[in-house]
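hey can u check if this looks right to u? its 750 residues, i copy pasted from the old doc so theres a chance i mangled smth
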Amino acid sequence: MMGAATVLFIVVVAAIWVEQSESEYIEYNTTQRIVNGQINVHLVPHSHDDVGWLKTVDQYYVGANNSIRGACVQNVLDSVISALLEDKNRKFIYVEMAFFQRWWRQQSKAKKIKVKELVDSGQLEFINGGMCMHDEATPHYIDLIDQTTLGHQFIKDEFGKTPRVGWQIDPFGHSAVQAYLLGAELGFDSLFFARIDYQDRAKRLKEKTLEVIWQGSRTLGSSSQIFTGIFPRHYDPPDGFTFEINDVSPPIQDDILLFDYNVQERVNDFVAAALYQANVTRTNHIMWAMGTDFRYQYADSWFRQMDKFIHYVNQDGRVNALYSTPSIYTDSKYAANEQWPLKVDDFFPYADHPNAYWTGYFTSRPALKGYVRVMSGYYQAARQLEFFKGRNASGPNTNSLAEALAIAQHHDAVSGTERQHVAADYALRLSLGYKEAEVLVASALSFLVNQKLSSQQEKPVTDLQQCPLLNISYCPSSEATLTNGKSLVIVVYNPLAWKREEVIRIPVSTIDVSVKDSAGNEVESQILPLSNATLILRKYYVKAYLGMSPGAEPKYWLAFPVSVPPLGFSTYIVSKPRQTGDRSTISKVHRSEGSTNNSIEVGQGSLKLLYSADEGKLTHYVNSRNLVKASVEQTYSYYSGNDGTDKDPQASGAYVFRPNGSFPIKSDRQESFTVLSGPVLDEVHQQLNPWISQITRIFKGKEHAEVEFTVGPIPVDDNIGKELITQFTTSLETNRTFYTDSNGRDFIKR
């Protein structure tokens, strides 16, 4: 017995020693190959790096504020580049140039040479290539173009490459403008994303229509279409194949000296997941997005496992695995010569489960949305003036504002879904960018104005000031008292390519003013009083913005029409009139109290609005030019937000709009109703309740009305979240058809 046991022990030890000598090092075969007639699994390593969300863009980059989220994009890029240099077959795609630019600036010349070699070889590929992965619901198409151009210009300048593929994997729904303008017309060969309505995804999985030809514009037809792929799940790998350092997916353990050897088991898992996806995908090519948010901070943990999977899966032979990119995958799809389903219109609204429609962000953080839009318009004008005068690379220039606007298009920025301190960071960047651009605009306009004045042998303008706080009725330059023969010169610039005739309004401290154009001709003007709501806002926000209370309050608006040539400017002079009859017309005031008419008519041109004299409510609109008279009623209501305490825990919030119901807001008394009329415009001032007031304006010669409402503070002492709306009810026969905006460029029929 003793001898037999001894012999057995010696045999086992000898066998182990032989295996150990063979398993010291395994050279994994990761050579890229496409196998015809077999399922090809394209493994696409990526990291989805939000340009701000729970942390600011710079906090995400350097890895600060990790108590919120352990994310450091600098680590991602450092780690990925090192991993790619270890094996020429490995690949990685990168998307957000706002981060890559930050990283690139910090690299040595030697490192940059190596990275350029990775890009030239196709190991590192820039996909999408904008400064951020922009939102698709709330931005204007001009901003989408600008932020994409900024990123692509960086890639072109540094690497001589142009991205081929759109990668909008995380935005909360997808617009038709994205398909054709930021896809087909941008020159992309394909577009990929993850988020579509859960019901739509289920239907497409069943019908094998996750990959389509998306025709984004009915007008442009086939020239607007792009091959589009929708992921069968999220933008992460199938369950069991995530390999960040703290992930729970079992790694391939292929060392027979260690416990839990599992090569065949993990290969079987891989093949099963591949076959499942192949059954819902056309052609024999499928793509796995190998990554998710802020992954590859330790890239070896991913690449080590993918090396093993490619090696062992290909040895197994049932499917073929390869390192790939969306560009390689797209080429394979094109080569398959498949007939693809046609998709038109867009992918809105998006819901990821019942009662969870992601439409709340359409209106989240409206102040930031408004700031982005205003700064966008200012940037377009500043860029033109920068060109007219001549660009100064050392400053001041528009670069900072361009970069601030670019990252503000991120799908967790202008969307309003970011944390408060992140929203403040976006606003601060816009403010700093504006400050620099403001200096440029003043300098360029002075240059252009003085060129004109010089030709007329007049004194030059030396100090042009702007009024960025006009939205809260604050403009020190126009509020100053004009004494000792001083005048206020107003320069109005038109950045559009057609002549514009508009009415501008500036706050003034006196009614004793008149307006002339640059030729000295009298310009018809009108004085209107500032409303109480306007004065309250002014006092509060000027102090918040400047850190001090404003001085003497202006009492009036001065309104006058301007005519401005395309891509040009006009000047107007505001001064103290020499004769009483020359001064601006003071608005006539009509109050609803004591009116003997049943209705009050407002408007002097083709368009007129009719209000009931007893209640002060809008009842009809009339367009005498079109011979149209129709009933119209305006009301205010609010949606009460669901707090998620019922059977379905989904609450209403920044992302999801889930109301409990809508409730009318009624005045507990007759509405305060005042009509101001004059030669330039008519205004209707209404105070609906202590926290809602409204001004409706009808300009002489215009066929539209302008509604300005002031709301707040919204009472929440009943602990009910409220989303306010105003609703216009008309007699139009619409057959339940309406149109929604698509990034300010198209309308989508619903």
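The first helix runs from residue 2 to 22.
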